[in-house]
Amino acid sequence: MFTLLPSGICEDRRLMEEVFHHYRVGPVNSGITRYIYPMGNARNMPRPGARATRLGYLARTAMVAWNQGVDLFAEADNRLALGFEYTASLLLGETVHAYGKIVDNRGRFNDIYEGILQHYRSQKHMNLPQTERRAARSRSLAQCAHLLQRNPRRCKLKAAPEPSKIAATAGARQMTTYPAPAGAIAVAAGESFKTRSTNSRRAAEAR
User: Fold this and answer.
1) What pLDDT is stored for residue 94 in this prediction?
2) Residue 12 falls inside a structural domain
3) Backbone phi, psi, residue 90, to 5°
4) N or C terminus: fewer CB in 10 A for the chain?
5) Is the pTM of this model over 0.85?
6) Domain, as residue range, for 106
7) Domain assignment of residue 187, yes or no
């Protein structure tokens, strides 16, 4: 999206509109709500480094769109801000809700946070405390940090977007929370379901 959008702006307005549509409702994990879930976590959550890179592309796409008068930052109740707050919390060592085992690469820093922080603070009057902390730690790496840093406006900042209160209970969990019914076939990780069910059926027939 970030690569196609400038081409669309300069040469093909239809391409530009397609990028905006893709950002909003793109298939698989390309749209904002399909990549960043209501908790703030993302599709590739166990790999925070890859997640941060993808967030950076979404942020840059939103920045280019903003300069064209299109507000992608506000899509899905500021879902991009929610994703940045979640990722910043994780990489700062905070405890966050997550599915699966997270690869620990919290020592890695990149410069994707400064632009997002300044946009939401200056344009949306929104406080992103975790993003601000992360931006401060990676500011020396930011290519244009000296251009992006601004004095915050003297106005009351709105609170950051909050994770969904019901999303945390959705999806698979590490441990089962409900007893298996009688006669259920238990399949271990890596085991073939077909082989396991065949063996269970044969064992039942032999009784």
Assistant:
1) 85
2) yes
3) -60, -50
4) C
5) no
6) 4-169
7) no
Instruction: Pick from 55-59, 96-100, 142-146, 201-205 the range whose average pLDDT is largest.
Output: 55-59
Q: How far apart are CA 70 and CA 48, in angstroms?
A: 28
Alpha-carbon span 33 to 164, nearest angstrom = 13
**In this structure, which amino acid lies at residue 18?**
E
Is residue 206 assigned to a domain? no
What is the chain's Cα-based Rg? 22
Average pLDDT of 40-50? 67
**Of all residues in the chain, what percent carry a pLDDT higher than 70?**
77
Alpha helices in 104-172 (DSSP H): 113-122, 129-138, 145-148
- Give the distance from CA 22 to its chain's centroid: 16
In what helix (H) or strand (E) does residue 64 lie, and over which residues does it extend?
helix 48-66
With respect to residue 145, please indicate whether it lies within any of the assigned structural domains.
yes
Query: What's the total number of domains in the chain?
Result: 1
